[in-house]
Amino acid sequence: MKIFNWNLNEKLNTNDDLIMCLGGFESLHLGHNELFKLAKSYKNDNPNSKLAISIFANSIKNNEVIEKKLLQLKVRLYILANLDFDYVFIITPNKEIINISDNKFIEELKKMNIKTIICGQDYRFGFNHQGDISKLKKHFNVHVASEKKVNHSKISTHLIKELISEGNINYANELLLEKYALIIKADKFIFHLPENIIKIKSGIYVVNAIIKDIEYHGLCLISKYSNDNKLYLFDITTIPSKHQEIYTEFLGAIRYIDTKQNDNINDEDLKIAKKYLESI
Question: Pairing between strand 18-21 and 50-56?
């Protein structure tokens, strides 16, 4: 998978006909998977084309950059690599990008060898969302994915943010394409949460931790009263370097923290975590 930083103001040399999925993709959930399935179906009919996607490093709302996000950019890139995308174009919002006109955006798309666009039913683009699907169709072969719902409600990043804030990891994981994850660095298994990430509810969670491509299993304390959070891994024999990235998948909640007295990992948490891991 090739990754480009795209400022919407220059032609990137891909030299391939592209099937482009357009959206913000702050998360990657079952609703987005409808786009991806449609894109892959079209690629099967056009095997010489390459699958591409544009993602925003940060979301834009009301013409302002939203710093707090659901998933780190690197987590999203790992997931996209598993989905067999050939190209990812990362857009980092700035004043120029926020103010880009819909016509200018279309001009930049044309420079990219984009032959087909896949998007959702509510896709809009350009300053103040001036551009819409009908305008895209005047310039490109456009396919619109069906909307995915759960319990009669649209699956959205906003919904999943609420679930994470509530600590409802099980339901969030049902909606996400891969389990909710954070990339952390820990000093003797003590770590701070990444900056600008929606905070998961304080509690004890069962986790998988991937270190140098090896998967370990245990639990994680997200503290309510301290910035120091903790990993406890059952099957690791060495302490990772404090510079080592740890890809931490959250599998489920054991309990939430509401007092200083229970802001720690106890023996009962360890027993519950072991039973949980044995059952999956």
Answer: parallel
The closest alpha carbon to 75, from 236, 201, 254, 250, belongs to: 250
User: Tokens 């820990």 map to which residue?
Assistant: 186
Q: Beta-carbon neighbour count of residue 124 at 10 Å?
A: 14
Question: Could you tell me where the DSSP H helices lie in the chain?
Answer: 30-45, 73-82, 95-98, 102-110, 133-136, 157-166, 169-175, 267-278
User: pLDDT tens digits, residue range 27-78?
Assistant: 999 999 999 999 999 999 989 999 999 999 887 777 777 778 899 999 999 9
Encoded tokens for 29 = 């959930």
Q: Which amino acid is at 197?
A: I
Distances in Å between the Cα of 120 and the Cα atoms of 109, 154, 195, 239 are: 17, 12, 29, 45
> What's the pTM?
0.91
| Residues forming a β-bridge with 61 | 64
- Look at the alpha carbons of 157, 231, 57, 62 in this order and tell me if their dihedral is positive or negative: positive
Is residue 92 within 8 Å of 66, Cβ to Cβ? no
Distance CA 280, CA 266 (A): 22
φ, ψ of residue 245 to 5 degrees: the values are -75, 140
For residue range 69-123, what is the model confidence (pLDDT) as tens digits?
Answer: 899 999 999 999 999 999 999 998 888 888 899 999 999 898 888 889 999 998 9
